[in-house]
Amino acid sequence: MAEDIQHRICSKNSNMNMDFTAEIYNEALIMIEDLCLQLANKVINQLGTPSPNRSAAASFDVELHREQ
Fold first, then answer.
1. Is position 55 within any domain?
2. 20 to 30 Å CA-CA from 44: which of 27, 32, 52, 65?
């Protein structure tokens, strides 16, 4: 998932040399947590994985739109 997110961001910014960031990994964790909620009706930390920072993801989206 993180690779897909990185590819999407690189394509939007026309920068194919972007490294993985904490924000990319956080967005992947959010997607995984959403799947956990749909499939098991549990948040990700109930399954033994750290929870994503949803407020950081919102800030990252604002920053990404600002760059475009």
1. yes
2. 65
Distance CA 34, CA 32 (A): 5
Q: Is residue 12 part of a domain?
A: no
Q: What is the model's pTM?
A: 0.66
Helix spans in 1-68 (H): 2-13, 22-40, 54-67
Structure tokens at 49: 């994985």
pLDDT in tens, 9-39: 888 877 777 788 888 889 899 999 899 989 9
Q: Work out the end-to-end distance of the chain between its first and last CA atoms, rounded to an integer number of angstroms.
A: 23
By the 10 Å C-beta count (0-12 exposed, 13-18 middle, 19+ buried), 52 is classed as buried
